[in-house]
Amino acid sequence: MTDLDTFITGLPKAELHLHIEGSLEPELMFALAKRNAVTIPYASIEDIRAAYAFGNLQDFLDIYYAGADVLRTARDFHDLAAAYFDRAAADGVLHAEIMFDPQTHTARGVAFETVIEGLLSGMAEAEAKHGITSSLIMSFLRHLSEDDAFATLAEAGPWLDRIAAVGLDSSEVGHPPEKFARVFAAAAAKGLKLVAHAGEEGPPAYVWEALDVLHVDRIDHGNRALEDEALVARLVAEGMTLTVCPLSNLKLCVVPEIAAHPIDRMLALGLKATINSDDPAYFGGYVGDNYRAIAGGKGLDRAALATLARNSFTGSFLPAETIAAHLARIDAFVAAQ
Ligand SMILES: Nc1ncnc2[nH]cnc12
Ligand SMILES: [Zn+2]
């Protein structure tokens, strides 16, 4: 390990953009296929990895939804979450706000309760084992209807006190935020925070809509906001957090190479960018790998990396005093270097 690797690993950080289904490693996919007698279209773990070459978001989503079919029981969801938190803990993650896609599972006949109880037990185990705190973001699939999202919000009723926020993910282009205006308003009325993927592949107009129509508390990705100066000014003025995912952007061809990633420009413009892994099992790395990729590919120095880590806590849904304690931890870590 280089000094910079050690710095990145030790830097206290939060992860704010992680799809738990996207942390399903090929080894676990294989093991769960066997445990549940589910047929998958791969002969080996190498075969699975070889399939992970994507030209765009939809190429990835097709493979990602198919892979999730091996998740059947609460134990499966527990094991999935436990494996993610083991990796996150090794990367210096102290807090994670993890997304899950209930519709991916309920559409296959897996009960909402099975999914959430499994995840919650994995989260509780991780807090006891690693001291990592976490919360859940229930994401609606935007290629489905608003009615479907309303049905999912209703199903979540008994667990609303265990869900921090709702989110919006899946195929972006052609499914603008506006499509979900009413269900987001209903979620806000129930006291939930709001996040939405916007500006990953979709135009700046979708980021404006996420702000003005959905009234989100955070933007997931937001890369294409940089095409619109007035939008950047608005995001900066509001101190809006962007949950940026460099290796995801590379694997989904949002950027041609890490050297072309706009993370440095985002910071220079005063945007509250954070670093996240999105779907680490599919995109070649967990949050530490994402920090290392931009540190190497963009030459970001330790001060910039510490800013990104600070942003991850200030952009979290933790109580203000907990955020302050985490920021003090970062200051102490940086001072000790
Ligand atoms: N990067 C991403 N964009 C949209 N939907 C997703 N679901 C999982 N990962 C996603
Ligand atoms: Zn995502």
Automatic annotation (TrEMBL):
A single GO cellular-component term on record: cytosol
Active site: 200
Site (Important for catalytic activity) residue list: 221
UniProt KW keywords: Hydrolase, Metal-binding, Nucleotide metabolism, Zinc
Pfam families in the cross-refs: A_deaminase
InterPro entries: A_deaminase_dom (IPR001365), ADE (IPR028892), Ado/ade_deaminase (IPR006330), Metal_Hydrolase (IPR032466)
Source taxon at top rank: Bacteria
EC number annotated for this UniProt entry: 3.5.4.2
Adenosine deaminase domain residues: 12-331
Gene Ontology terms, MF aspect: adenine deaminase activity; zinc ion binding
Cofactors required: Zn(2+)
Family: Belongs to the metallo-dependent hydrolases superfamily. Adenosine and AMP deaminases family. Adenine deaminase type 2 subfamily.
Name of the protein this chain belongs to: Adenine deaminase
Organism expressing this protein natively: Sphingomonas panacis
